[in-house]
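Cross-check.
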Amino acid sequence: MSFWAVSRGLTPQGKVAPMLNPNQRQFLEDELRYREKLKMLAGGNAIDDVYVRKPDTVDDPLELDKHDSFYKTTKSLLVLFQIMGVMPIHRNPPVRNMPRTGYSWRSKQVMWAVFIYSCQTTIVVLVLRERVKKFITSPDKRFDEAIYNVIFISLLFTNFLLPVASWRHGPQVAIFKNMWTNYQYKFFKTTGSPIVFPNLYPLTYALCVFSWLLSIAINLSQYFLQPDFRLWYTFAYYPIIAMLNCFCSLWYINCNAFGTASHALSDALQATIKGEKPAQKLTEYRHLWVDLSHMMQQLGRAYSNMYGMYCLVIFFTSIIATYGSISEIIDHGATYKEVGLFVIVFYCMCLLYIICNEAHYASHKVGMEFQTKLLNINLTAVDTPHKRKWTCCWLLSTRIRPS
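Predicted model, tokenized:
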């Protein structure tokens, strides 16, 4: 392109700057600082104002466990997932050079998940066969009964998506848990204070119990509102509805944890600015923020497939239930069956609202709110020798947005 432009007397186009992801940008900045440090050493100059990222060290696993408050406070939900066979990750022994959370297809947690899934699938197949048979051979096919059959058959198919949507992404989930473990210890070493998750321990326990109670309540309501809904059908839907509730609870907890970590990081940054020579640690704080952004990206890689199928099922159920209930009310008036459909619609809409609202909350806390606090920092409070470096770090930080 440049040769074509010069041969015709035109000004060649300038080079397009490459778009770097946070990892590439971090590597490039470290290389530039290291070269600057070598030049200053060769010239005999002082290198106090040159920050170079500290080399990664192997942390003591006992220290990682000591500061891993996120795992301790959310352990009840992880154990419930193991019991239900939804996500069979396990905790490795405290050995150096071994991740604290792991996933193996030969672990006892996976074997238990296969056993529970086999028992659950047997009941699901029996109920599915009964519903399909009744749907095909019923002589009087009312529209509302057809809608109910479509909804409950689609919910049963959720059971068959579990190995594909959840188990297959077990290694990515383990990476996400290990990132949380390492981040909390790194946060403690940088700021001198741990990340505190207030009320998360009782909240997680309450969500575990509430998920199953809500599943029982929804299934029993359908049993009383639907004359053709037998009691033994509910045993196929109890774990499915509880699994959907637990997925929503997990998303709520993860998003709130990101908001809490971002708030703790911003408070620590404000406290550091008021101290002596704060710019010596500003780049370390920026690295903590970039690591938090990386964890949000890993959250998407670990759970995207799972929540993608999850939202598809909820959208499909909501649309079918809404259309069926409104159509039946217009044609035949309101009955108890339509009340059951409205219960399903309200339940699905609540799940969608929680997922979307919490995702927006986490993105706002880690992204815009943290950047706003950076903008409000008074640069006159920063020591003069490090003011230029702080300005560069701030400009680079504002260009990185968590995804």
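Residues 56-398 form one domain. The chain has one domain: 56-398. Passed to J.P. for a second look.
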